[in-house]
Amino acid sequence: MQPIKVETEKGHEIVQRVILSQIEEGLLQPGQKLPSVVDLSTSFGVGRSTIREALSALKATGWIDVKHGGGTFINKVLPTSQSNSRDPFEESENVREILEVRIWLESGSAAFAAQRRNDQDLERLKQIIEQMEQALEMNDTQMSEHADIEFHLAIAAASHNELLNTLMSSLSCKLTETIGKTRQLWFYEDKSSSILLLKEHQSIYHAILAQNSELASQLIQAHLYKVANVLKHGAIQD
Questions:
Q1: Among 111, 137, 160, 219, which is least packed by CB within 10 angstroms?
Q2: Residues 65 and 102 in one domain
Q3: Reduced 3-state DSSP string for the chain
Q4: What are the tens digits of pLDDT across the range 41-75?
Q5: Does the keyword DNA-binding apply (predicted)?
Q6: Could you tell me if 67 and 147 lie in one domain?
Q7: Are 176 and 53 in contact (CB under 8 A)?
Q8: How much is the pLDDT for 126?
């Protein structure tokens, strides 16, 4: 008898499914503003990162619109069930394939972020770097991984290219999985590697701060190629 893989539904998938069901049933109307991330977190009894992942997936598939600084709204024109049937990254289980997409996507994203970032973008990136520093001091792996994901999503947001931002948002669930898997290979509880990773993120931030688009792109490529080399030697496929 072949072994059967039983998968448990993740928290963000449950939140996403409930909100989508409320939209389809008309409980949430097109154009209606959703509660804040904090309020949704309290309502669902989950962490804010779980809510953000669910909202990112709903945005990527066209059900909601996130207005920078203005809140989250149900899209006025809802996608059809056919157009929403497949997330572009949903069925890609190969970590290496996801990473290859990230290298090309994020190098351009970082370059645009360096050109177009505003004070609010810089403040967000600075806050995330501070969270990374705090996570390192506390040796908090979960906090570090979450900050890592938020950093890459914040760069996409700072590009002020809606399509790039949407593509990165649709990758957010996979980022959660791939970052955790690659860290397992990279760190092996070696704190010096954690410090090196923090320094790489700091360097990317400073390149964006200096509006050096070429350097920002090069640094994020180098950062991701290092992860690719780890995967090459560690042979993680899923």
A1: 137
A2: no
A3: CCCCCCCCCCHHHHHHHHHHHHHHCCCCCCCCECCCHHHHHHHHCCCHHHHHHHHHHHHHCCCEEEECCCEEEECCCCCCCCCCCCCCCCCCCCHHHHHHHHHHHHHHHHHHHHHHCCHHHHHHHHHHHHHHHHHHHHCCHHHHHHHHHHHHHHHHHHCCCHHHHHHHHHCHHHHHHHHHHHHHHHHCCCHHHHHHHHHHHHHHHHHHHCCCHHHHHHHHHHHHHHHHHHHHHHCCCC
A4: 999 998 888 888 888 778 867 788 877 667 889 98
A5: yes
A6: no
A7: yes
A8: 95
Q: Domain check: are 139 and 227 in the same one?
A: yes
Does residue 20 surpass a pLDDT of 80? yes
pLDDT at res. 111: 96
The verdict on pTM exceeding 0.85 is no
Same domain, 139 and 216: yes
Residues 216 and 141 in one domain: yes
